[in-house]
Amino acid sequence: FRARLAQGTPLDALLPEAFAVVREVARRVLGMRHFDSQMVGGMVLHEGQVAEMMTGEGKTLVATLPAYLNALPPASHVHVVTVNDYLAARDAEQMGKVYTFLGLSCAAVSSNMDLPRYKAAYGADITYVTATELGFAYLRDNTAASPTDLVLPEVLGYAIIDEADSILIDESRNPLIISLPLTMNERGVRLVDKVVRPLWQEAREAVDKDIEIVRNWYRGRYKDGMDEGMRQVMERDVAQTVEAVRGQYWKVDMRQRTVTPTPAVLQRLLDGLVAEGVVFAAAQREGRPPSVTDLFEDAGNWGRLAITALQAYELHNPGQHYIVRDGRVILIDENTGRLRDITRWQHGLHSAVEAKEGVAIREDSLATATITFQVFFRAYAKLAGMTGTALPSAAEFYELYHLKVVGVPTNRPLVRYDAPSRLYWDPDTRWRDLCELVQRCWAEGRPVLIGTTNVGESERVAQ
Asked: pTM of the full predicted structure?
């Protein structure tokens, strides 16, 4: 094939024979012969599109077809992107037998490799790697001190992304960050937390008190129970009550992830810091009492520390955004639920959460290089993806990456029943219906897998 390419044969012209060779080799080496539907999926991927293939249709085997074909041109490197290290290692080991039989090299990248092994893995014709590892390799290359430290090929040629909707859509704007350690004012962070904590507890108790008043009013008014419509009205009133009571202390913008204290709360923060012995240099020098302005103009930057502490209390919840394990605050990926052990929030937020949880405060960091999946994967000359749930995101795939989504038929007629989505206004009704559904399935002897959006909901389901 490579000789014919050197003679000017177009790559697309080799597709029928190359796919046939891969299919036969997979049958001999793995005992698995590509179904016709899998051949179609391979063609979709080779054309640089997103193939929607149902769970169980064998996407791992499908990837061998376009991966082999696109690794044939000289100096070509194909990256098959998986969601975790285990799948990268497993797929490279299993599918690597096909590539090796066909004369190509194959390797997997894992997070614990040293530089020589990184170089060897990325130098292979076909490399299995997670999206995160690939993105950080790009950042390290762009901040490398010497050409000998570079690991990625000069040209990013072709990438096949498994679970493409998760990586290219759900996680597309999550930044990958390389950072350097910063000198951190641990005493200041602890002191500010000491002042902010009672204020936040006071606000929370006021909110909880008024929520209970609203709920009790509705329970007293509708002693015989409320229908679904009235439950929705009650929940709307509860939400408005939360906004009104909390607004007496600070305004929370969930979309922008910001907390803005009222002037009265800023004054109380200033008074609390003064009571704790904080000296504001300008006020002392000018012989006047400290003012709210000094919170933001003093070298200690107390105002920023206080607002960051409020964000830690109001916007970041244990079990949803992070967990505390072995005396450390570990982030939770909100899209996958997996722990992000080596990632820290920036701009002092992680230190504020550590103070909130009463664990050791580790040094903060300064971002020196950052990129998102959305920007990184656009750098590839050809990009393709596969997933079981692509069609609902077809418009976003095309808008962000100019990728078309193609639904690939199943090998056999689908016998599974896919129930439509059910939307609930009231969380309590949703939980009640979920429990009833699980009980019915259990009575029928059917196992049930329940997926949730965060650890807190998982624990509630378990209870």
From this structure: 0.70
